[in-house]
Amino acid sequence: DQQVKQNSPSLSVQEGRISILNCDYTNSMFDYFLWYKKYPAEGPTFLISISSIKDKNEDGRFTVFLNKSAKHLSLHIVPSQPGDSAVYFCAASSTGTASKLTFGTGTRLQVTL
Amino acid sequence: DAGVIQSPRHEVTEMGQEVTLRCKPISGHDYLFWYRQTMMRGLELLIYFNNNVPIDDSGMPEDRFSAKMPNASFSTLKIQPSEPRDSAVYFCASRRGAVYEQYFGPGTRLTVT
Questions:
Q1: Given an 8 Å threshold on Cβ–Cβ distance, is B100 in contact with A93?
Q2: Which of A51, A100, A109, B66 ranks highest by number of CB atoms within 10 Å?
Q3: Would you say residue A48 has pLDDT above 90?
């Protein structure tokens, strides 16, 4: 029972263009969401997060959008750079279980020249 | 500051053998998490500790898996006996206090033949 779903296993984008990674969740109790980035042979690293009281959070080239009614969030990377090529994981948590993060299966982003 | 340290980075063992994975969390972090990553299920939480005490082990797949945290700077995940289906990458992560963001180690790639 996947409570956090990343339905696109892979995405290819040209350098300089926008990358949009999507994530859907089913548990309405989730109220905090995170994106992690993972390079091969390394552990995931935290990228950006958003609380359910917001619908947008921006950090440099990275913006996360949250649509609570649709139980959907997305990560936008503008402009995309070759160094952004990695696997991106969406994760969710709820205040009641604040210690536990539920992860999606990841989307592999390839930024081409 | 050193990040989360895991050892070994790679482990190859035969079915039936005991396997011990090790983790040193970031100094000052009071939460420690063990995850398993597989292609089919993504990142799954196995168990987590708070102040060295196991809080939730509901993700531990079966009795063959056990985890300990004898002090604030060391944790082990043991599989005995190991089976081929245990082959995966095992990550340790830590965090400080009530923040959601977790910091991951580089992982241990386990192969059971």
A1: yes
A2: A109
A3: yes
Q: In chain A, which residues touch B (CB < 8 A)?
A: 32, 34, 36, 41-46, 49, 89, 93, 98-106
Interchain contact, B101 vs A93, CB within 8 Å: no
Name A2's Cβ contacts closer than 8 Å, sequence gap at least 6.
Answer: A26, A104, A105
Question: At residue B98, does pLDDT exceed 90?
Answer: no
What token pair was written down for A17?
A: 């263009």
Query: Tokens 């482990």 identify what position?
Result: B11
Task: Report CA-CA distances (Å) from A88 to B30, B73, B87.
Answer: 26, 29, 22
Task: For B23-78, write each residue's pLDDT tens digit.
Answer: 999 999 999 999 999 888 889 999 999 999 999 999 998 899 999 999 999 999 99
The two structure tokens encoding residue A13? 């984008």
Which residues lie closer than 8 Å to A7 by C-beta, 6 or more apart?
A22, A24
Q: Which residue of A49, A104, A105 is in closest CB contact with B101?
A: A49
Q: Which residue has the tokens 């990695």?
A: A86
Mean pLDDT of B91-113: 94
Closest CA to B103 of B6, B14, B12: B6
A-B C-beta contacts closer than 8 Å: 50
Using a CB-CB cut-off of 8 Å, the residues of chain B touching A34 are 100-101
Summarised one tens digit per residue, pLDDT across range B3-24 is 999 999 999 999 999 999 999 9
Say how far apart CA B110 and CA A67 lie, in whole Å.
38
A104 in Cβ contact with A6 (< 8 Å)? yes
